[in-house]
């Protein structure tokens, strides 16, 4: 049986490969996805479907941030919850500003699918990079 930690580890690997179908396929149809409050992508909170996450989060980031990377350094799991610690990096195409921000992600899984996601990150840095 695949553990929640393995599912999330594989999800980060798929994102690093640019495999959007696998990433979005890991989300429950009624996922509750929350970007960090006051961040530039929080306007759509809560994103309530894989399509909404793709269009409102992943699409804009990949269009606006060159060489965007999500690098988890540690995953901590208990039952159906996984917490990831890591860094985001990239360069905003419009402002030329570099992004190098810490993150914490809390993932909750049910039957192998992500039912909830909460992002914590340096929103002041994100807003500066985005020119907000």
Would you mind describing this structure in some detail?
With 132 residues, the chain is an alpha+beta fold. It is built from four helices and five strands, in the order ααβαββββα. β3 and β4 form a beta hairpin. The N and C termini lie far apart (45 Å). The model has no long low-confidence stretch (mean pLDDT 96).
The sequence of SSEs as H and E is HHEHEEEEH
Q: Give the strand tally.
A: 5
Poorly predicted runs of 5 or more residues:
none
What spatial form do the alpha-carbon principal axes imply? globular
Fraction in beta strands: 35-45%
Give a concise summary.
This protein has 132 residues and is of the alpha+beta class. The chain has helices at residues 4-17, 20-25, 50-64, 123-130, and strands at 27-34, 65-78, 81-92, 98-110, 113-121. Strand 2 and strand 3 form a beta hairpin.
Outline the secondary-structure elements.
Blueprint: H1 4-17, H2 20-25, E1 27-34, H3 50-64, E2 65-78, E3 81-92, E4 98-110, E5 113-121, H4 123-130
Parallel strand pairs: 1-5
Antiparallel strand pairs: 2-3, 3-4, 4-5
């Amino acid at each position: 049986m695949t553990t929640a930690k393995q599912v999330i580890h594989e999800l980060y690997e798929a994102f690093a490969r640019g495999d959007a179908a696998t990433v979005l396929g890991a989300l429950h149809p009624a996922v509750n996805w929350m970007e960090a409050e006051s961040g530039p992508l929080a306007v759509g909170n809560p994103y309530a479907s894989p399509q909404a996450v793709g269009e409102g989060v992943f699409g804009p980031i990949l269009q606006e941030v060159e060489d965007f990377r999500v690098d988890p350094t540690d995953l901590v799991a208990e039952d159906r919850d996984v917490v990831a610690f890591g860094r985001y990096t990239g360069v905003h195409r419009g402002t030329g500003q570099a992004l190098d921000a810490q993150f914490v992600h809390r993932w909750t899984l049910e039957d192998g699918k992500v039912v909830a996601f909460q992002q914590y990150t340096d929103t002041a840095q994100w807003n500066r990079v985005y020119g907000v």
